[in-house]
């Protein structure tokens, strides 16, 4: 039996029907045997490349050709259009670029230049902030400032970062960004982002 690992590019859910619109599968040349408990080890190189961490949930799919496909499961990603609508509301109220991220990428964005960051991988620095459950309200000139994405194309001047926590686990973050030098973040933006993160965390518990 061949076991193929890949990334599901598009999923369409209609009622009880789950269709895979496009699947990108790359051969690795690596073969692993299943042990007597039915377990198979995902090679360290693949885990590092795809940012699969210990205890990360994976979805399992099969196709008609007998392939087994593993996809990283994103609880925040399950919110889909709701996350997009919430980001739009947050941007309108705050007047800033509003982002909702899971632990790997930006899944919803609204505001100025939102298309430039949507779908981008989060930076290692942001990932560390999430893992340590830090709340951030800072400016680029401060030592606590972190780039939100790996290849941040615009130099944002101010940011607020609030982790999203559900059932004790960090599943993402709410981020507010401003590119204007005189548009500093304060307690108002902190409370807006905290309310958003708290609400999204509770949504995932339902």
The share of residues in extended strands comes to 25-35%
Q: Which regions contain 5 or more consecutive residues with pLDDT less than 50? A: 1-21
Q: How confident is the prediction overall: mean pLDDT?
A: 81
How are strands sequenced across the largest beta sheet? 6-5-9-8-7
Give the N-terminus to C-terminus distance in angstroms. 38 Å
Which percent bin holds the helix content?
Answer: 10-25%
Class by helix and strand content? Answer: alpha+beta
Tally of DSSP β-strands: 9
Oligomeric state of shown chains = single chain
Sheet of most strands: 5 strands, antiparallel
Radius of gyration: 19 Å
Helix/strand order = EEHEEHEEHHEEEH
The backbone outline, from C-alpha atoms, is elongated
- Tally of alpha and pi helices: 5
Features:
two-stranded antiparallel ribbon
Describe the structure.
- The protein has about 210 residues and is α+β, with helices and mostly antiparallel strands.
- The protein is about 25% helix and about 30% strand.
- It contains 5 helices and 9 strands, in the order ββαββαββααβββα.
- It has helices spanning about 45-50, 80-95, 115, 125-130, 185-205, and strands at about 5-15, 15-25, 60, 70, 95-100, 105-110, 135-140, 160-165, 170-180.
- The strands form 3 sheets. Strands 6-5-9-8-7 form a 5-stranded antiparallel β-sheet, with helices on both faces.
- Helix 2 packs antiparallel against helix 5.
- The longest helix has 19 residues, at about 185-205.
- The chain is elongated.
- The protein starts with 5 loop residues before the first strand and ends with a helix.
- Residues about 1-20 have low confidence and may be disordered.
């Amino acid at each position: 039996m061949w076991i193929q690992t890949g990334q599901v590019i598009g999923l369409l859910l209609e009622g009880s029907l789950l269709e895979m619109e496009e699947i990108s599968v790359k051969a690795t040349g690596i073969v692993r045997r299943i042990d007597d408990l039915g377990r198979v080890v995902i090679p360290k190189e693949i885990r590092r490349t795809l940012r699969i961490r210990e205890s990360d949930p994976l979805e399992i799919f099969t196709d008609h050709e007998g392939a087994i496909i593993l996809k990283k499961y994103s609880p925040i990603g399950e919110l889909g259009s709701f996350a997009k609508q919430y980001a739009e509301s947050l941007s309108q109220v705050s007047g800033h670029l509003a982002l909702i991220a899971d632990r790997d990428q930006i899944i919803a964005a609204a505001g100025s230049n939102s298309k430039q960051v949507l779908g981008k991988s989060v930076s290692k620095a942001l990932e560390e902030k999430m893992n340590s459950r830090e709340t951030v309200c800072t400016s680029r000139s401060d030592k606590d400032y972190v780039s939100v994405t790996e290849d941040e194309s615009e130099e944002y001047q101010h940011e607020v970062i609030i982790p999203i926590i559900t059932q004790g686990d960090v599943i993402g973050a709410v981020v507010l960004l401003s590119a204007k030098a005189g548009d500093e973040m304060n307690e108002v933006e902190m409370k807006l982002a905290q309310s958003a993160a708290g609400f999204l965390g509770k949504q995932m518990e339902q």
